[in-house]
Amino acid sequence: MSRIISGAAGGTTLVSVPGSLTRPTTDRVKEALFSRLDAFEVIADARVLDLYAGSGSLGVESASRGALSVDLVEFDGKASEVCQRNADLVNTVAGRKAVTVHRSKVDSFLDRTQEAVRWDLVFLDPPYPLDEPALAGVLAKLLPHLAEGAVVVVERSSRTPEPTWPDGMERFAERKYGETKLWFAEPGVTPAADPDADQEAEPDST
User: Fold this and answer.
1) Model pLDDT, residue 18
2) CB 3.0–4.6 Å: which of 16, 36, 99, 187 could bond 87 by disulfide?
3) Is 84 helix (H, G, I), strand (E, B) or coil?
């Protein structure tokens, strides 16, 4: 049984998705993950996106720890209902609608997201059947919606290869916890343009 580990709703037991179609993040991995995110100082007042949310445990943990807003994206009907129940638990404690559930396919959600929308922290825990090219496509669609200094966390089986990062997104850390592997990425820093780079050199007057 999963729970919220810390924050305003710490200790709250979460509803789990019935069956075996989802792969919930264990409390051990979640605790290690959020310990690192706390060290990065990216949770407080963050705009958080949880893709392939499952039960929504990563997103609602973020809300409990002080995230400004959380979007949970889940297409499966039973899982999205569980997301809503867990969101309601945290929203009640917060006294506001901190967590919003979107029943949608991830690609469709990103396709219709307005251009100006940006997130500071993004979780992706895609199902095993999602192949690497499909994941690379999702990361490419996500890139324009990352705020400066954003952190992207991809959770996969430790037997899968490192995700293919799109140009403009760079992996800066990785951690393995048993059968689970976490990759941490961020938007790449584009070098500042040299204002004189395209100017012709002035002739020597001597």
Assistant:
1) 86
2) 99
3) helix
